[in-house]
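Re: weekly structure request thread

Next one in the queue (184 aa):
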Amino acid sequence: MPTKTPKTAEKSSAKPKAAARKKSGVAGEHSLEGKPAPAFSLKAQNGATLSLDDLIAEGNLVLYFYPKDLTPGCTTQACSFRDNLSAVRETGATVVGVSGDTSALHDRFIAKHELNFPLLSDTDNKVAKAYGVYKKKSLYGREFMGIERTTFIIDREGVIRQVFPKVKVEGHTEKVLAALKELN
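Done, posted below.
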């Protein structure tokens, strides 16, 4: 019986690993991984404008896109980042959330849950589209366009190092922290 060469063996084992990562919600292959992050400039909750360049000047960036302020899943995710922000900062990174909500709604969300990081307003979804997270979704049989919960880890050079698509909120912050530690 012929034996597989190491190269063939690597190929056959790589695909199941990538599929397993995607099923588990762990970062996997994404069309933007390893590429420069799309530039943006958006209004923050306090009316200030923040750009990608501003944010990566501080270090690595955890840029997470979420569907809607003050909803259960988005609140759980934001509060998890809030509660673990010191651990994120210890890795040399910052956290920024992006949704299609207005700056005024972001102000309410931040105040209600004492969030300690910026939320950016992408009301026309241009940035969400540039990052490939504005997609057709369905809920209770109804289809609509919206933001798919996705997290990007962007390094100081502006390169996307990891993407977490279709994020499941439970345990997500821990996965992001592990990825940030590997990046250092």
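The beta strands are 41-44, 49-51, 60-65, 93-99, 119-121, 134-139, 142-147, 150-154, 160-164. The two ends are 44 Å apart (CA to CA).
Next request, please.
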